[in-house]
Amino acid sequence: MLKPTLLAAGLAALLALPTAAQNTNSGTDKFAQLETMLPTPNSYRTASGAPGTDYWQQRADYNIRVKLDDTRQAISGDEDITYTNLSPDVLTYLWVQLDQNVMDKNSITTATEVGQIQPRMPFQALDYLQKSEFDGGFKIAEVKMKGGKALPYVINHTMMRVDLPTPLRPKQAVTFSIKWSYNINDQTKISQRSGYEFFPEDKNYLYEIAQFYPRMAVYSDNQGWQHKQFLGNGEFALPFGDYRVSITAPADHVVGATGTLQNASEVLSSAQRQRLDQAKNSNKPVLIVSPLEAERAELTRAKDTKTWTFAAKNVRDFAWASSRKFIWDAMGVKQNGVPVMCMSFYPKEGNPLWGKYSTEVIAHTIKTYSKFTIPYAYPVAISVHGPVGGMEYPMLSFNGGRPEKDGTYSADRKYGMISVIIHEVGHNFFPMIVNSDERQWTWMDEGLNTFVQYLAEQEWERNYPSRRGEPANIVAYMQSDKSLQTPIMTNSESVLQFGNNAYGKPATGLNILRETIMGRELFDYAFKEYATRWAYKHPTPADFFRTMEDASGVDLDWFWRGWFYSVDKTDIAIDGVKWYTVDSKNPEIENARKREMINKAPQSISQQRNLQDIKKTLVDDKPELKDFYNQYDPLATTEADKQRYQQMVKGLSPEQQQRLNSGLHFYEVSLKNKGGLTMPVIVQMTYEDGKQEMMNIPAEIWRKNNAEVTKVFITEKPVVSFVLDPLQQTADTDLSNNSWPQKAAPSRFELFEYQQRAQPNPMQQSALQQQEKKPTGTSTGGTN
């Protein structure tokens, strides 16, 4: 037990003053402003983080005609692109993205991949290694002007430069066309963001199609053309525009796509159109194509085709799905009075999970994200179940999560499916509306989206088992070897531990900002302001950082510097505690206190043994050796002591007399920032009577010394323990040094017996137990 040290009354105030050591910063000042690291504000992007008065962005409008070959699993199409130059620059050429070339036989993605051959490898791994044998790249048949004149072009892997016959000046537009084709990949063998799944039981295909057409690259004020090669991780940077897409597929297929269906009377039956109208005002999903209808379609093989035409306004991309296996359900929700059709397309293999949850999850996501960002203004939001585990496009997403063949599923499968639908539908906001550059900064869409996904999950179900968002969930990553980490502010293709870095760490950082650093009110206002400012525009990291500070009035440069630009970790430790009490100068009080301390002090081992071994001392044997001091009590209070105290008190003011007799306790707590990451200091004090108090000290406590500080706590009651970050709000990576007195941080290890066969999920186990409980020997036949 720590013993209190007496403190002269005048010294108490001095403890609150910083010492020379506390004013010393070693190395880089973690509170230095980010001005030298962020781009200089200008008339396009302001210092506040808002678009400037001269902000501009390009526009690309598409008219696309595409045909699905269900026999050869191939795509062919042609498109007219109208590109409008709204920049102040003169353009002599345009850059077009050919992302499908990631599956070209000569793909630089395959050529630059690294890995090792393992002694035991599944067939799927070998399929992936041999994917270079698949010819899946674009076959460009022609590029020409609207009037028919051929345009020269150069293909550089996943980018194509189209040279214009005359320069495209500001405020001018040009229309040109491209004709192309490619082979669709088997998604179960060559995992990409698009592909098909074959169902051998009924010999049908399910197609999820994206990146299927040559797309315009972004030309922006902050970097010119974004024509970095698509290597696989860095997704897509795309301009906004209007789309009209006609999809020709087998007549017995159901097609879902970005935008609204323009020719429902040509492709849907009257019953299906009636159900679709009914769904608009329904508060639960309505089946447009029922399971029975889908199973009947699985048996057909139409030789003729239908063309489904969709239109979408002010979107950055377009994707679609097609299969005769699709069940289709829908329900309507409203955002600011605007009706939104939430729809799901899924094969029977997705039930019962998909019929029960998918469309409800879409509606919940639209409502929750709209609350935290901006109202969803697109007319539809679609979730498609197929071979792609999770991928997003405007108004449409591809999502995994399939139950077992017997219809059972584990809790992980259920919540994994709900989470991926929330996540991919949520991408409508980041980056489909708040249109960041995914090719450069994955975290700006994945990280922000994962954060709002966490908020939506918690509003779906109390104590939802969110995988990412809670600070404790990122600790293992931040504890890992720094050589295996990269700062969040790393280009998408160079990120290590992609999921932790691009999804988990930024999402957790935003949660820490919201709950611990800024508070919900300030954070939510600033985050909504960012979404409002940059809706349907192209924000950069600097725009996000500056807006969050501008709208909240909170200086966060230290947080961006540590959490986003470094791989430092949170590890704040209690290095020591000193306990002081004020000397009241009252001899009766102080002498009694000293006597109590002496009486409570434990005897040394020598003293204890001497009581047993030494039966009588010499002085005990010869009392004549005793003198005055054998009877003297130094802690006895004399009249002279009392008079001196009274005289001293008379010279003090009433306020000084009160302080002298306050009985306050002073605790000098030494703190060390061992992890290097600056964070608030959250302290929980437990008093002698068992009551607790929590204090949240802002991160600025470290501003004059980033490595170690001393904080004085003044309490009316004795403190028996100090604990840092008891609710794990800051992702502290070492809890063993967070307590005084020190406590061992619990950890666990697991014993298991290796099992080669997968165990039944809980639903299957329950069914087996119910079967075992059934009585045996009962007859199931009728009477004779």
TrEMBL record:
One of its GO terms (cellular component) is cytoplasm. Residues 359-563 form the Peptidase M1 membrane alanine aminopeptidase domain. Residues 755-784 are annotated as: Disordered. SUPFAM superfamilies: Metalloproteases ('zincins'), catalytic domain. Keywords: Signal. The keyword Flavoprotein does not apply. It comes from the Bacteria. One of its GO terms (molecular function) is zinc ion binding. GO terms for biological process: peptide catabolic process. This is M1 family peptidase. It comes from Hymenobacter perfusus.
